[in-house]
Structure to design on (482 residues):
């Protein structure tokens, strides 16, 4: 059998459509080295382990956070926060863009029907004056248009670039979730800290009001001076001013919490846990810097963008080579619409087009230069993301190693300040010292108490930042190592 004789245009289209892989002109991808030390400052040589948890990124937020009220707020924020919704839709956008780019690697086949009418002068008619002045043709069939044979991998490289951008967007969505949970926790504990500060100030106002009443009684009895009364009023009014400032901050924190939730704060929330360091998990497994490469979504996204830039170099290189596109139609044709579907009207057309770039005024070379420059930028951005992650973890670890000793020192200072105030009151009542000593002791105690609360809050915030920096917060429940 003569194969060439029976090789129809339809069969040739199908055969050519199977030759899609082609070759790739993209550079071989190699992950850049880590531009950071092998160990975090102050850490040992082996990855940390904690209660079977492989890594902080495997630690679900339900395990990390102990406050039931906060754990009830997190799903609300994930559902209603507008930044989260935008991030989810960005993923869908990137998925659609990848699908559009990927479709260019395959033939686009559709049903085509068209009618052509043409009028020519007598001296240009094929049959001369005897031919009709107006000719018509009707064509219907199945065909494809401008399908590019990807011999040099241009479409393949563009599809790979779109896919990597899609993956980067997925990682960006995970980053948004981690940051959202961290922001919600930070705002929630800010509110809890301000509530604790407010309780402290109210107790202080009550104590200083009692002191003022005592001094006024002594003044009425001729024992104390008007200076003592004014000093007592000064410390009392200072506490009232602090109360106004804290109340303002509390109101703003509630507004911020509502914005993060994307809705009003529900009234039927579980009771809040006592505001201590136990509201978050105590010790976190830190691991080694190399673990950040596979755990932090922002680093993974930066690498996806680097791979996309690498693929774009392949597409820019392929543009220097000839491109072949095919247009074909298989169907029926007739000069009269009424006889279009009669027998014997079968037709086909097959139009390959080859384009060989000769002179482009530097467009192709500049496109390649641009792709290479963007790839270099992507490398730098990838390395910067690693350095930023390393710095964030190192800063949080510095806090973990120092906050406890600071809190212990403040606790001892607070006890000493209590004793100082007690002694100052006794010496004032005995007429040994002036009221200035009592005033100084009250101010010192209040300052230490505020500092203790603030440092405890800062230690909680630091642990949240460490949790985020190590890639935690993107799962609800923990992944336990086997």
């Amino acid at each position: 059998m003569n194969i060439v004789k029976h090789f129809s245009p339809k069969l040739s289209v199908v055969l050519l459509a199977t030759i899609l892989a082609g070759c790739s002109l993209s550079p071989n991808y190699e992950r850049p080295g880590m531009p950071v030390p092998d160990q975090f400052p102050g850490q040992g040589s082996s990855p940390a382990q904690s209660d079977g948890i492989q890594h902080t990124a495997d630690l679900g937020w339900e395990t990390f956070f102990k406050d039931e009220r906060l754990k009830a707020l997190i799903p609300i924020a994930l559902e209603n926060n507008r930044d989260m919704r935008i991030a989810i839709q960005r993923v869908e956008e990137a998925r659609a863009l990848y699908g559009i780019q990927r479709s260019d690697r395959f033939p686009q086949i559709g049903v085509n029907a068209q009618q052509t009418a043409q009028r020519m002068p007598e001296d240009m008619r094929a049959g001369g004056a005897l031919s009709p002045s107006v000719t018509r043709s009707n064509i219907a069939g199945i065909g494809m248009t401008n399908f590019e044979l990807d011999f040099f991998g241009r479409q393949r490289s563009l599809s790979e670039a779109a896919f990597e951008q899609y993956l980067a967007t997925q990682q960006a969505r995970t980053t948004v979730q981690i940051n959202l949970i961290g922001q919600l926790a930070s705002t929630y504990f800010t509110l809890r800290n301000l509530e604790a500060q407010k309780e402290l100030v109210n107790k202080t106002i009550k104590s200083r009001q009692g002191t003022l009443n005592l001094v006024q009684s002594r003044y009425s009895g001729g024992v104390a001076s008007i200076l003592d009364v004014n000093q007592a009023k000064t410390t009392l009014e200072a506490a009232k001013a602090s109360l106004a400032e804290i109340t303002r901050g509390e109101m703003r924190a509630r507004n911020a919490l509502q914005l993060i939730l994307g809705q009003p704060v529900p009234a039927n929330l579980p009771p809040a846990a006592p505001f201590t360091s136990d509201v978050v998990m105590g010790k976190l497994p830190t691991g080694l810097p190399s673990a950040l490469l596979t755990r932090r979504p922002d680093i993974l996204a930066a690498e996806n963008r680097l791979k996309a830039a690498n693929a774009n170099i392949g597409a820019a290189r392929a543009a220097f080579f000839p491109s072949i596109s095919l247009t074909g139609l298989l169907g029926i044709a007739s000069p009269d619409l009424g006889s279009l579907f009669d027998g014997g009207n079968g037709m086909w057309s097959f139009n390959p087009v080859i384009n060989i770039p000769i002179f482009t005024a530097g467009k192709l070379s500049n496109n390649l230069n641009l792709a290479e420059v963007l790839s270099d930028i992507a490398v730098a951005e990838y390395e910067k993301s690693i350095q930023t992650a390393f710095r964030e973890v190192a800063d949080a670890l510095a806090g973990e190693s120092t906050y406890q000793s600071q809190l212990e020192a403040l606790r001892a200072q607070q006890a000493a300040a209590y004793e100082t105030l007690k002694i100052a009151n006794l010496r004032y009542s005995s007429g040994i010292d002036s009221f200035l000593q009592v005033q100084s002791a009250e101010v010192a105690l209040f300052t230490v108490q505020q500092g203790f609360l603030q440092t405890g809050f800062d230690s909680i915030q630091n642990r949240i930042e460490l949790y985020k920096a190590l890639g935690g917060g993107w799962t609800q429940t923990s992944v336990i190592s086997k």
User: Anything to note?
Assistant: The first helix runs from residue 9 to 17. The chain is about 55% helix and 10% strand.
